[in-house]
Amino acid sequence: TCSLELLEEVKNLDAVIAPIGGGGMISGTCLTTSNIPSNIKVYAAEPKNADDAYRSFKAGHIIADDAPNTVADGLKVPLKDLTWHFVSNYVEDILLVDEQEIVNAMFLIWQRMKIVIEPSSAVALAAIIKNKAIFKGKKIGVILTGGNVDLKKLPWMQKEFIGG
pTM value? Predict the structure, then answer.
């Protein structure tokens, strides 16, 4: 329902972007946007270190990822046949981001917007920041969900991300 709520609140969007793991949220987004009269493009954002949806999208069939390793642990879930239908038929593109880009986007949202999100949610903003040319001049809806964060393990406090 998050995409329906977004579209009810914000009119005339050019695109919606959401993180993708197992594909449930992006499938719901595709279903919502395909059932309203609009030209809204749906983009998915995925960590490079868990890129089974991206590789599947480019290949035209599901490709499993046996050992994803990403700070965005909520996106380690593989695509399923049911969600693949929506991804392959309705998603405009899947955009990849690296671990540091995810952490930087998460930090930006925490710092500027004061919204508690988990790394999995930050993947969508990271993709917009990385792909400015795609989104320049466009009205974009970004789906931010999930606040499952251990405050003692914030990614930007971890040695591998300090100074990034």
Answer: 0.91
